[in-house]
Amino acid sequence: MSKLRVYDLAKKYDIPSKDFVSILNMYNIPVKNHMSALTDQQISEFEEKFDKNKYQAEQETEPKKAPVKEPTKASANPAAPKGTSETKKPTRPPQKSQPKTGGNGPKKADDKKRPVSNNQGQQPKMRDHSKKEKTARSVYKRIKDEKKKSVQLNQTFEIPEVLTVGELADVLEISATEVIKTLMLAGTMVSINQEIDFETAAIVAAELGFEVEAIKIEDVVSKILEEYDEEESENEIPRPPVVTVMGHVDHGKTSLLDKIRKANVIAGEAGGITQHIGAYTVNINNHAITVIDTPGHEAFTAMRSRGAQITDIAVLVVAADDGVMPQTVEAINHAKAAGVPILVAINKIDKPGADPERVKQELTKYNLVVEEWGGETIAVNVSAKTGEGIESLLEMIIMMSEMEELTADPGREARGSVIESQIKRGKGAVATLLVQQGTLHIGDSIISGTTYGKIRTMIDDKGKRLKKAGPSTPVEISGLSDIPVAGDDFIVLENEKEARQLAEKRKEMQKGERQRRSNISLDDLFSQIQDGNIQDVNIIIKADVQGSIEAIKQSLEKLDNEAVRINIIHGAVGAINETDVMLAATSNAIVIGFNVRPDKNAVKLAETEEVDMRLYRVIYDAVEDIKKAMEGMLAPEFREKVMGNAEVREVFKIPSVGTIAGCYITEGKINRNDDVRIIRDGIVILEGKIASLRRFKDDVKEVNTGYECGIGIEKYNDLKVGDNIEAFTMEKIER
User: Fold this and answer.
1) Tens digits of residue pLDDT in 352-378
2) Distances in whole angstroms, Cα of residue 663 to Cα of each of 673, 691, 733
3) What is the DSSP letter of 95?
C-alpha cells in the first residue's frame, strides 16, 4: 500500500479528519493532525482492528448534546432549586396587585426574555453567543482551507539536487520564513540565499507536510546538439575529408606530414616529440584534405581518442623497421571504437632492415588484413625522408573519401569540435575549431562546454583572416570568455546572452566541494601512504596548452591503486599563479607545471605555505616522479636552482653575430656558464645556453641585480621585448 496522509484514510471511511485523528490515537497510532503521514504497517494494523459499522452504530446510540439556546422564561431563573422541574411555570401575583418598587413600573412584554437576578441591585450578564459563533466560523474556515490546501499538497514536488532556501520555498509555495524556521529548529542557521542539498530539502519538506523528489538539471546544450544532429537537411553537398594521423612515438608521423605540407614542425618540439594537436589543410589535385596531427606518445591517449572521434579516415603510421607497437594497438582500438576506416602507411621503407611484409603480418592479429592478402585494409609503402609513395597515399585518401560519400550542409548554423585551446598575448583565450556542419561567421555567438563568446577574429592554418568557414575547415578564433576544453563540441546560438545563460547553468551543474588537508610533498608521500594518512593524492596541473593537461591527467590516473587514488582537482592553461598555490595549500595538493613557470608572487607564497611545485618539460618525467613517490623510490640526484632573472628591454640585431637582448637584471644574478630559459607570458619558449654576456663592450662572467647587460643565446634569435630570461643551474641534492 502506498504512503497515505491521515486525511486520505479518513476519506476512505467517510469520517471527518478531526474525528479520525482521535480514532487513530485510540488505536495507539500517534498522529498530530490530518497531515500526518501513515506507514503501511500502521494502516494495515488499523484496518484489522477498526470496524466502521460498529463505529457508526456507536455514534447513532450516543446521546447528542442539546444545542445552546437563548434562556426562556422556563429556565430563566438561575437560582431555581435543584428539585424544581424546568417545565414548571413560576407563580407570580397578578400584575394589577403588584406594587411599584424602585421606581420601576410594571414589566413590559420584552421583559420576558430578561433573566431573573438572584442578586439584589445587580443586573446579570448576557451570554456572549456572538463571540462563540465567530470563533466557530473561523475554526470552520481554517479547517476548510486546510482541507483545500491538503488536496493541493497531495502531490510530489520536483526539486534540483542543489537549490537555495528561497527556491525551495517558491517550489513548495510557502514563505521562506517557514523553511528557515524549520531548519533553525533542526539546529541549522541559514539565510534565504544559502544553498542546501536535496537530502536537507527533503527533510524540511517532510516536516512541513510535503513530498519531494530530486531531478537533475537538464543540459539544454546537449539537447540542442542532439536535435541538431537528428535534423535532416536536403541541401548537403560533398565536403573535404578529415584525416587523422595516428601511430606509435617516433614512427614518423610528423615527418610524413612535413613532406605533405612542406613545413618543419619538429624543430619546435621538445625531444622531437609532437606535444600539441594541430589541424592543417592541404590541396591535392584540386581536392582539399583536412589533416589532424595527433601525438604518438602513449600519454596522449585521450587526445588521440578525441582525434578519432572527429575524423573520417584514420591514417595509421607504422615503421617498417619497428613493426606494431603498444601505441599502434591503442590507435587501432580508438579508430575501431569510433567506427573510422583505417588506412595503413608503412613508413621508413628506405631504412636498412625495413620489412613491410612483417608489418602486414603483425596487423592481421588485430583484424587488419591488407587488400593484397584478400582483406579490406589499404596499405601503402611510404618514405617520409625520400618522398616515395606520398602521392599514392594521398590518392588513396581521396579515393576512400569518395567511397564514404562525405557531405555537409553549409547553409545551417555551424557546429563542430574544439581541437586545441590556449591563451595568446593580445588575444586572450583562443581556440582551434573544426567546423563539421554549417558555416561559421565572424560575429557568431557560440558555446562550448562552460565557455561562451562572440567570434571577433577567425584565422585559418596559414594565418589568413577569414570572414566565414565552411564544413571540414579548421580555424583559430578569439572572443571567448575562457579557454574551452579540447574535444568539447561547440554550436552557434541565437545570441551571446543565451550562450552566457546556458554556460552559467552548466557551471552550476559542475559545482563541487573540496576538503582541506595538511600539505604534502612528493618527498614524504610514500611515508604518509604507509602510515595510512593519505588515501587521495590531489594534483593541480598547469600547462601551456589544454591538450597537455589532458595527457598528463590520463597518465596519472593510470597510477591509481588500492592504497592511494590520484585526484586531479584543477587543470588550466597558463603560468602558475598565487591562486593555484592557495588552492594547493587549502586542498593539500601538489602543483605540476608543464612547459610553464610560476610568477614571483607564486614562488614566495609556495615557500610560505610549503606547497610542493614540480616543473617539467617532458611528460615522462612528471609521470615517473609521481609513480616513484607512490612506490617510495623517489630519489632525484639533482635539483634545479634558479640563479637570476633578466627582463628583455631592447633587442639588437647585429650582422654575423645574431640577436642580442638588452636586459635589466631584476633578481639574483646571471652567470656566463648558467643554463637559461626564455619565458614569454609564463610559457617556456626555449631552454638553452648563453652565447655571450657583456656590459658595454666588455665580456663579463656575471651581472648582478640592478645592472644592465647584453645577452646572446646560442642558436636562437627570436627574442622579443618583454621576454624573461631565467638563469638556472642543476645542483646535487643528497637524499
Assistant:
1) 888 999 999 999 988 899 988 888 899
2) 17, 14, 31
3) G
